[in-house]
Amino acid sequence: MEKEKNESSSSNGNPKPWQSYHTVYTNAKAGMDGVDKEKVQRVVYEMSKGSKYFENEERKEAFMRQKIEHMRARCAKLTPHDISHYQKVADTRVPELEATRDLSRTWLHVDMDAFYAAVETLSDPSLKGKPMAVGGMSMISTANYEARRFGVRSAMPGFIARKLCPELNFVPIDFKKYTYYSDLTRKVFHNYDPNFMATSLDEAYLDITEVCRKRGISSSEIAEELRTRVYEETGLTCSAGVAPNRLLAKVCSDINKPNGQFVLPNDRMAVMTFISSLPIRKIGGIGKVTEHILRDVFGINTCEEMLEKGSFICALFSNSTADFFLSVGLGLGGTATPQIRSRKSMSNERTFSATEDKAFLYRTLAKIAEMLSADMEKEGLRGRTLTLKLKTASFEVRTRAVTLQKHICSSEDIFKHASVLLKAELPVSLRLIGLRMSLFNEEKVGASADPTQKTLTNFIMSGDASRKNVGHDNCLGSDVSDHHFMDDKETSISLGIHKRSHCVFRDSFDNKCVPDLDDNYHRFTYNVGEAEKIHEPSSDETAEKENKSDMIGHSPKYHHNEESQLLEANSSVLQHYEGSHHDRIEAANSLDKEAVSSSNQEDQNFWVDDYKCSLCGIEMPPTFVEERQEHSDFHLAQRLQEEESGSDLRMLMPPQRCVRKDPASHGKRKKLKSDKKEGRHLSIDMFFVKSNQNF
DNA sequence: GGGTGACTGGAGC
DNA sequence: TTCCAGCTCCAGTCACCC
What is the pLDDT at residue A231? Predict the structure, then answer.
């Protein structure tokens, strides 16, 4: 007790530091009435403090406070004239918004009660009446009402939940089960509104205007009937809210949870009365941060106060944000059934134990690329913008994106471009990697648009990985044309983005090349494939590999094995190419500049037997015009670099993004400019300039 | 200097 | 010891182009 007292009276002099630790867990949620909020807050604080997560939350908290201070300062700077001006703006905008009010529709929001937990209880009736949470020690998805009484709730780590409720039963997540029950509920919804909008497995909006009119019964009766039918079909209870629009319907469904309903009449007075004292946090779209800003900057706690502070809202927020806040003050929300919206993006991400192990990170990236590709192919999507999402060991979230010239969907393309993005962030300790594809093409391609499409694993495993890699990324060349080349002191061999696929040749050229996990990504992709292909694992290794396949955690032992696999792999790579190292250098040196110019005639001279590169022996079919051209350019670039540096076999250097090291630059966009100090290496831009001069 | 597109991070569900 | 996944929307910033 004394210890707790001492700890509580921490350095900042605050006797109850947990009170200032704002978690989402203490926010009122259905079934949490009567919870000892302070106790929950204290336990969460005590369990969290000192952790990386906690530190990150504090950083975010500090950032929010800074934002609030900044907005307060802006508020204070408003002159009476400014305020008068923005009051006029608000006075104009409010009637315009009011004019859009539509009281002709009746919306019903249905929300299943503690859905996952209820489904699990159906499966295992022995759980009935006991506190239970769906999820694990790291995170729980939902908790039943018995558990909520202890302060346990969704999005709470399991270990904290157990501290709050030692009797808590944990049940693992089983999405198949929830999807099955969700489908049953949707069949019921369909009877009331064939165009109902499902927002998640357990929530949906129904426009019941027509069904009420046709059957001549009230919305309340429809809600009652629907809930009864859901129960009959599934054995699960749900809550419903009925209102003139979706925003209000959602608020209403929460009022008599669980297993209840609330109807707000289609009447302006009723709406305004309802909204007048409604806390802003109840509104969908207003979360923890927005609530704090509105409360601490403007003193807004209820929806009604949005209108009272209309001038400040119009002064400090963008038009769309101000419109949203004013609409909330008026109790306005969506009433029309929206058009079916096309998907904007698709993503896949995985969390794992924080690690710096590059091999593991690239392997994880490859897996995610493959999963994303499979998801995209299922929907026949091809995208142009690829975003890499990273969460560092300190919970900092970074995103890095590239917009390509071509739409892509194959796992190998995704991985190829994602690797470039990841490479630029290394070394870094990560706990999450995600990939998102967006900017989809309008015309969907068939799911089997490209029957020859390989999975990434196949690609890596296949013996022609090097060939597939060669010059296959011509789209990237211009996409990242502003990347620059730098001398990479850490890597013995590396290559720029534009020509990075050619590193395979470089590897094969240079017998001194020793596989090293510090090498750049494309070597890794290639070598891993080779390693898997040529290395006959022992039974122990096989088991170990299987254990690793779930991507959670990694083994130092494997890391060691992998290095030796990579070593073996690399020597096998060398055998793919004909002729000695010396022969190839001779060939390269005897190559006349014109012989690698871009004309078709010269291209033909360059390729032996229509297939083989006369310099390095790589095979590429004549139909690969662009790829072959790029390959020829590579050899030319190589020569030019040799001339430039005066030494043989100078390496092209990899692009380096300006990796943010300085936390002060957080949030600032990194600009990728050509490096003025390019040293002895020729940048790819310079290469093209020089090429043009030569030709 | 304005328009536009790209990139990044945040918020919310 | 342990703090989600996958999506949308939005704002701010920057670079490039005309």
Answer: 93
pLDDT digits (tens, 9 = 90+) for A264-274: 999 999 999 99
Protein-to-nucleotide distance from the CA of A500 to the C1' of C17, whole angstroms: 30
Give me the A residues in range 147-206 that sit within 7 A (CB) of strand C: 154-160
CA of A291 to C1' of B12 (A): 12
Best mean pLDDT range from A158-167, A227-236, A519-528: A227-236
What structural domains does chain A harbor?
A: 1-49+139-166 (no CATH), 80-101+268-330 (1.10.150.810), 107-130+167-263 (3.30.70.270), 346-461 (3.30.1490.100), 465-548+560-695 (no CATH)
Confidence of residue A340 (pLDDT cuts 50, 70, 90): low
Q: Which long-range contacts (CB under 8 A, 24 or more apart) does A155-161 make?
A: A155/A24, A155/A25, A156/A25, A156/A44, A157/A47, A158/A133, A159/A47, A160/A25, A160/A43, A160/A44, A160/A47, A160/A48, A161/A133
How large is the C-alpha radius of gyration of chain A? 31
Percent of chain A residues topping a pLDDT of 70: 57
Residues of A designated catalytic: 203
User: Is the C-beta of residue A438 closer than 7 Å to nucleic acid chain C?
Assistant: yes
Sheet holding A261-263, edge to edge: A197-200, A203-207, A107-112, A238-243, A261-263
3-class SS letters over A390-403: EEECCCCEEEEEEE
